[in-house]
Amino acid sequence: MTRRTLIRGGLVVTASDEIHADVLIEDGRIAALAASGTPAAEAFTAERVIDATGKYVIPGGVDAHTHMELPFGGTFASDTFETGTRAAAWGGTTTIVDFAVQSVGHTLREGLDTWHAKAEGNCAIDYAFHMIVSDVNQETLKEMDLLIEEGVTSFKQFMAYPGVFYSDDGQILRAMQRSAENGGLIMMHAENGIAIDVLVEQALARGETDPRYHGEVRKALLEAEATHRAIRLAQVAGAPLYVVHVSAMEAVAELARARDEGLNVFGETCPQYLFLSTDNLAEPDFEGAKYVCSTPLRPKEHQARLWQGLRTNDLQVVSTDHCPFCFTGQKELGRGDFSKIPNGLPGVENRMDLLHQAVVDGHISRRRWIEIACATPARMFGLYPKKGTIAPGADADIVIYDPHAEQVMSAETHHMNVDYSAYEGKRTTGRVETVLSRGEPVITEREYTGRAGHGAFTPRSTCQYLN
Question: Which residues pair with 99 in a beta bridge?
C-alpha cells in the first residue's frame, strides 16, 4: 500500500535553492515538489498532511563525524547508538557517519563487524561508517579494497595519540597510495602527536596539571605542521585528503594554499571551534575539563578565520566530532593530570541550531548552512543525492524548522546521554519542530515518535568531488 505524506506551505531551503513549495512524499522518498498555490501543488493528495507555513523545510542534517560508544582512555563515550541517534534526530540530523575502529593487531573486518553489532537494530536514524586504520600492513591494505566494495569508502588515520591510533609517515603514505588506487578517501587527524607527548611530559613535570594546559601543549603550530605534512604526503601519493576537526587559523592557511594549488584537499571544522575557546578550557574548579577535546579549543581570534574559511570554501564541512564523556566519573579521571581527561565533547544535537544561529548572526547564508551541514557532507562521503537534498528520488529525510522559535541550550533539556552541555545557557534562535527519516516521523511537533531499529546501515559510494 502506498503511503503518502504532504508537506505544505513551507520555504524549502537546499544548498542551491530557496522556494515556497509543497513536498509530496511517497514510500519513504520524495516523489514531487511544486510551487505552493500552483495547480500542480493543489493536485497533491496524501493521507498525512504537515502544515509548514512560516517554517523552513530543509534536508535532514548529515553529521559525518561521530563517535558513539567509542572506547577512549579507559572508558567509553557515553552515548550509545540508541541514545546518540535519538539526540541527533532531536537536533535535525537524520544521518550520521560513525567511526569503526581497527585495534592494533586486529583486522579491519573485526573492527567493522564490532561496530555493525553495536549499531544494528539500535539506531533511530540512518547511519554509515568510516574505518579508523590503526595498523597499516599488507593485509590491511588489501582489506581497504574490500571495505570500499561494501560501502565503507573512507579511512581515518591519526598523526596523534602515539601507542593508540598513531600512524607514522610511512604507514600514512602506504594507505594514501592504496586510496589513490581504490578511490577511497583518507581522513586525517592532523596533530604532531610525537612532539605533543614531549610537551605534555614537560608540562606535567612543571606541575601544570589543570585542563587549560591541554590547550597549551597541543599547539596550533603542531596542528599546522601536521596538516602541511599530510597534504604533501597525499600529494606524493596522488591521493585526495580530508582533514578533520580543523581548529587553528594556521591549519586553515595550509588547506587554502593546497586548494589554491589545485590539490584535492578538503577541510572540516566543528561548532566547538566556532563558538567556544580557550576561555572555556580555563574555567575554574576543573570545569575546564568539560571542554577538553583534540584538536583543542583555540583562542577566540581563530574563530574569525574559521568562519572566513567556511564562506570562501577553504573549509567545506561542519561536523560535530560528537564524543561525549560525563563530567562526573569520566572527565574527572583527569583530576590532577590533564592528559588523563577523556578527549571529546557532546554536540550531535546542537550542530544544526548553532549553524542556524550563524545565519542569524550573519556569518553564513541560509543556503550555505544547508550546504556545509547537509549537502557537502553527503557528497563528500558518497551519500548524495539519496541524502543531503530535497529533490525527487531522494530519501524523505526532511526537517520542519521554525526559524523564529527561541531556545536556551542546557543539559536539563538536551537528549544526549551526558551530564553537561558544552553550550549551557546559550540562547539561540531557530528550532527543530518535526523530523522525518525516510518519510517516517521521528520527531513530531517536539515529541519523539521514532524507534530504535528504524535507522538502517547505508552503504556509500566514493567521494563525489573526485569523479
Answer: 130
